[in-house]
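Reviewers of the previous submission asked for a worked example of the structure-prediction workflow described in the proposal, so we include one complete record here. The input consisted solely of the amino acid sequence. No template or homolog information was supplied to the procedure at any stage.
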Amino acid sequence: MNGAVFQLEHFAIHDGPGIRTVVFLRGCPLRCLWCHTPESQLPGECTAAAREIIGEVAGDKPFFDESGGGMTVSGGEPLFQPEFTLELLRLATGLGIHCCVETSGCGDYAHLKSWLPYTGIFLYDYKVSDPALHRELTGADNRIIRENLEKLNRDRAEIILRCPLIPGVNDHPGHLREIARTAEHLEQVREIHLIPYHPMAAGKHEPLPGEFPSPGTVQTWRQTIAAQTGKPMIIP
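From that input alone, the workflow returned the following structure tokens.
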């Protein structure tokens, strides 16, 4: 099976446990204003074979085994290429490689469910709580995203909430409290990852009003969330 791959990143340490190889796929239904790789949003015409990709990933298996790492499928958005993602996960699992999927959850839950037998951890993006603001900042409503998160929790998936935070854009107290409430409500959420905005891609799109957050701002985020949940928080 062939799919559109944007790039592979070896020796990644922020995309799941241990040392990982990240397979970035092309295509995404969202248009997040802060996206660091907007060029990956379009599907693209060049394709690669799943077995070829997994062959390259498998070359890093000694590092996975030593560190407790593995392969992470990211994007773009894996739900944009669900069958290709399933094939990558199936092949990697067959080689004894631990798999994570980083997803926005914006898509058909049947695909997420099909990945469950092969996915150790879902790195689930939780961008904006308010539906209207979510549409303004990403181009889509968040109803199906919230529903799919609930369904993954119901089906006993292991989940890490990944929360990009941009000062003055989506870091208002209401959203921070909702992150905490969501994590506390869903027993399968093992950690909350706060991802501070970095303007590294500002030249690729219209700049956001937010800036790189100060240590004091990040500490306020942490305190606001920690006041309402005991789930572990990590800031890469």
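The CA atoms of residues 199 and 207 lie 8 Å apart. We consider this example representative of the routine output the project will generate in years two and three.
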